[in-house]
Amino acid sequence: TKITYVMFDGGERAVDLKTGVNLMQGAVANNIPGIDGDCGGACACATCHIYVDAAWLPKVGPRTAMEDSMLEFAEHVEANSRLACQITVRDELAGMVVRLPEAQH
Ligand code: FES
Predict the structure, then answer these.
(1) Whose CA is nearest to atom 4 of ligand 1?
(2) E strands of the chain, at which residues?
(3) Domain range summary for the chain, segments of one domain joined by +
(4) Tell me: domain 2-104, CATH 1.10.10.10, correct?
(5) Which among 28, 39, 63, 104 is the best mutation to test ligand 1's pocket, defined by most ligand atoms within 8 Å of the CB?
(6) What is the pTM of this model?
(7) 87 C-alpha to center of ligand 1: Å?
(8) What does residue 63 show for φ and ψ, rounded to 5 degrees?
(9) Spatial CA neighbour of 3 closest among 38, 61, 52, 46
(10) Is the separation of the CB atoms in 90 and 1 below 8 Å?
């Protein structure tokens, strides 16, 4: 499943991720800078903050309550802010674009 990560400086990295991995794991495995995943994907660190491109929000679905409360620790949170470790790759997300926030650079 192709996912494109857009860096804060505008650089793009398109990677092919397997179904079932989350977007934090996918970024770390592909050395995408700006997603640290300090807590290992437990929704407990907010170092995997990303913005989901508006077109994909309906497919990604709403934030969980835990994700919402963790995002309070992130900077520059927007309506489309998500934690990458809480988004699992599946076929419907093919072609999705996510952006990285400034604070993680
Ligand atoms: Fe820690 Fe996502 S990796 S909240």
Answers:
(1) 43
(2) 2-6, 12-16, 49-52, 81-83, 96-99
(3) 2-104
(4) no
(5) 39
(6) 0.94
(7) 11
(8) -65, 150
(9) 52
(10) yes
| Residue 104 scores a pLDDT above 90 | no
**What's the pLDDT tens digit per position in 47-90?**
999 999 999 999 999 999 999 999 999 999 999 999 999 999 99
The count of C-alpha atoms lying within 13 angstroms of the C-alpha of 14, restricted to the half-sphere facing its C-beta, is: 5
Which secondary-structure segment (H or E) carries 68? helix 65-71
Q: If you write DSSP's letter for every residue of 36-64 in order, what string do you get?
A: --TTSSSS-S-TTEEEE-GGGHHHH-PPP
The Å distance, Cα 55 to ligand 1 centre, comes to 23
Dist. CA 6 → ligand 1 center (Å) = 18
Mutate to test the pocket of ligand 1, among 35, 75, 83 (most ligand atoms within 8 A of CB): 83
